[in-house]
Please model this.
Amino acid sequence: MNKNYFEIKRAGINTTFQDQGRSNLYHIGIPFSGAMDNRNFQISNKLVGNETNSPVIEFAYQGPLLKYFGDDIKCAIAGDVKFIIRKNDNDIEGNCYQSFTLENGDEIDIITTNKSVYGYLAISGEFNLEYQWSSCSINTKANIGSNNGKRIEDTQKIYISKINKDLNDKKLNYINTKIEKIRVIKGTNFNYFSEEGKNIFFDKEFVVSKLSDRMGMRLDGPKIENIVDTNIKSEGLIKGVIQVPADGNPIIMLSDHGTIGGYPKIGVVISADYDKLVQLTPGSKIKFQEVELSSAETLFKLYDLETQNLISQI
Amino acid sequence: MIKNISNLGDAALYCDFGTEVNKEVNNKVIRYFKSIQKENIDGINNLTPSYNKLIVSFDLRKKNFQTIKKLIENLNVINDDKLESNKIKIPVCCDEKFSLDIKRLEEKLKISRDKIYEKFFNKEFFCYMTGFIAGMPFLGDLETELRAKRLETPRVKVPKGSVGLTEQFANVYTFESPGGWNIIGNTPSVIFNSSKENNPNLINPGDAVTFEQITKDQYNNYNE
Model:
């Protein structure tokens, strides 16, 4: 059972196992977690013939360098990723959205996620992982999930419990597009902000800060002034909520966010824009655009349909 | 009982029970929370009760705001005033190395540390909610003499087990985390245990919590 495995020669910046995440646990303080970019996560699985919610390796910026030992296995990488497949010291430039075969002793060197943040590595088969609350997703904040809830580290081994053989190579023509306008619905504390603050929120440009991770994305830019109260009684948060603390700089809650918070909510990113939002690198310039609830619902249907279409093309 | 229902983004319902924070309002929130949980409604994927709000998250592929709103409005709410409540005792050591902000509190509140501890350890707290980080309990209400604001500059790392005060509330940091509460001690007790999937939290909303002061020796030799 342990004869097929990857040896981690370089772990990368933030490499974790992720699947669809865990639900119905907000009330005890546990967020959804799960793959940040849900579309690319599902595509990576389909490219190797898996169920679309199977566990994958998620990496950010610089990814891992993995050496493979075992029987031939198909792999695929989804995202905007530069990587190399190394066979007997021959470097082969890897292509995203195209499955490839690894043989005993081969290496995958994931160099960078280019102008995006997250990429996904799927294998045709199953990693040997522990589950907590029906998910192997690693939440490093609460040490929940597989790998003892810790990110993947140098020199560790990742075991593969099952390999699906006789799989045809699969491919998808897809290019990730970057968004500059993030569509939002007004938040429940929108009226806490000054008229000028509201105008700044929708008219001015913000820059994604370096202090962004799986928990949240901090933005720099013009300050948004609060005229009512910079603290509210702590209440529930969901991913996509944009909170504005006293310093006037917005913070967007992402998949590993704290489940409750006490800063006023100026807006919420619509579900249709979430996958693209999380891929914005520090330094990216963004603007917010207001949409109504009914448009947000339609936009999500379209986005979901597009995702299903892409998956069905594989 | 819900004063207003609105949407929080496109995939959550924001149920507002008013602005007051007290046991009665919080009991209503918890009753709604438990009632929705019991119904096991397909498409609802998270519930977040807090002092006086309840957020209902749903899967936008299966449901939308209008359908969930109708379900909540027509919900059969548990009418039992006696919600389950456990009595829990939490040991706390207030040795200097743990009571990071006791000096600050003495200055801000203008009372001695002995007085602060006396009041704190003689109080029975009510758990309003859990969250922010896994298992963190939000307990109230502190007497007015013990109410202080958060630190002006929050700590980047509050040690695991720290017991903190802010405004009328007390809490316990279940993990090392950033935070701005006034830290008065540390507990060796495990407040969140992820290996107990059915009941990972030692303290749950509605529970009655008291703190018990222990010595440094008792802290070091603590056995659950």
User: Anything to note?
Assistant: The domain at 87-220 of chain B is CATH 2.40.100.10 (Cyclophilin).
